[in-house]
Amino acid sequence: AAEEGFDIEDVEGAIEEAGHGPLPVLAVVGRPNVGKSTLVNRIIGRREAVVEDKPGVTRDRVTYEAEWSGSRFKLVDTGGWEQDVLGIDASVAAQAEYAIEAADAVVFVVDSTVGATDTDQAVVRLLRKAGKPVVLCANKVDGLSGEADATALWSLGLGEPHPVSALHGRGTGDMLDAVIEALPEAPRMTFGGAVLGGPRRIALIGRPNVGKSSLLNKVANEDRVVVNQIAGTTRDPVDELIQLGGVVWKFVDTAGIRKRVHLQQGADYYASLRTAAAVEKAEVAVVLIDVSESISVQDQRIVTMAVEAGRALVLAFNKWDTLDDERRYYLEREIETELAQVAWAPRVNVSALTGRHMEKLVPAIETAIEGWETRVPTGRLNAFLGELVSSHPHPIRGGKQPRILFGTQAGTKPPRFVLFASGFIEHGYRRYVERRLREEFGFEGTPIHISVRVRE
Ligand code: GDP
Ligand code: GDP
């Protein structure tokens, strides 16, 4: 590295940064109007149309990446759901429950100008049961005079209330210090109580009515085993062990699949939150797409959620029994145009109704996991990169030719590469490198991350 003009510490730093595993997850929960969205905006440091939301407008972005004092984490925002759907207590509790389930730590936001309400108390009970670390945010303490209101929140029994003004930024730094303290340093070792290294975890996701619960029933037959339950608020099983192809798999978050609550307004947001939580808990996402209808923006968003979360991906085209020749013709074109960004994902064409091609599901999942865990030895990677650079050099820009000098795979699940270059590598060339990497090493069913460091 040194003779290529890179400082060895830079190289090591870049590899470590790119090689991080899954980020710890922080959920922000609390009643409506306590300032959750304002706080989320402040933490992520940008305004992503969170507060501007009009009631009833679908918001499907519920997780954001954030950083404080060099620690990175994922933020799950629960601010986007209209409270009048279920009645305030139930809706706040339901939201909090999903967010808490997916989280490693929780920020509980209370409006200190109002004080602790019955709804707040209900959330406190949930938090106690979940046993996750909680940071209590006493919000709307805009000035010194509000500090007393914050102190009163000791009564919640959640420890020190952190006086904060999400609106003006007051106190947020101290609160975030407490958050970083509460988050596990390494990515969590358990998911829903199960130790990593147990059965592979599958999230079966897709928009409503694509056939998720039908598929689950079909594959499960009589073999389903409930592995755990969320304490308290629900008796629905969360995760289920199902034996398929001679292997036991854990289907995560199956309660969400069975639609225990029927919602009209806010249902999309509810579904997004649930999907995000399931994806967080899983290694593989099986996205169901209903072939009897056109591939929709919502289908694409769900696929994107899985890709952005860095999960292995299988596309299952369900209701194949409904296809006629004409629809099939259009479907193939839709797949080419609407799902081009995941052309690398294994596809299975199934029918939960007839059982068609159910046996192809497991091999597809196994292929995706294999790609997701692939590690390319540094020697092989550099031989490949050397060949690629000489056979297909980067276009010359401003009289110079940026070159990829060397690279390494910094991590797996999904594969992450760091390439070191002598100049700026254009987007098109990065895409070319990714395509060639896939041709050479497989990576079927997995997103891959490529970051490029440029020599100073
Ligand atoms: P959410 O429903 O919990 O997401 O709450 P919002 O973030 O939408 O905030 C509700 C209202 O409280 C908005 O009008 C905010 O401007 C206001 N708000 C949020 N944080 C603060 C704060 O720290 N101080 C004051 N005075 N108002 C705040
Ligand atoms: P979910 O909302 O994704 O869980 O979808 P469901 O499993 O509840 O299915 C929605 C509807 O599609 C139900 O009426 C199912 O009977 C139907 N359905 C599910 N899978 C298939 C399939 O493979 N073929 C056909 N024709 N209908 C299906």
UniProtKB/TrEMBL annotation:
Coiled coil: none annotated. Keywords: GTP-binding, Nucleotide-binding, Repeat, Ribosome biogenesis. GTP 2 binds at residues 206-213, 253-257, 318-321. Gene3D superfamilies: 3.30.300.20, P-loop containing nucleotide triphosphate hydrolases (3.40.50.300). One of its GO terms (molecular function) is ribosome binding. CDD domains: EngA1, EngA2. It comes from the Bacteria. The keyword ATP-binding does not apply. GTP 1 binds at residues 30-37, 77-81, 139-142. GO terms for biological process: ribosome biogenesis. Associates with the 50S ribosomal subunit. HAMAP family: GTPase_Der. Belongs to the TRAFAC class TrmE-Era-EngA-EngB-Septin-like GTPase superfamily. EngA (Der) GTPase family. GTPase that plays an essential role in the late steps of ribosome biogenesis. This is GTPase Der. The lineage of its organism: Bacteria, Bacillati, Actinomycetota, Actinomycetes, Kitasatosporales.
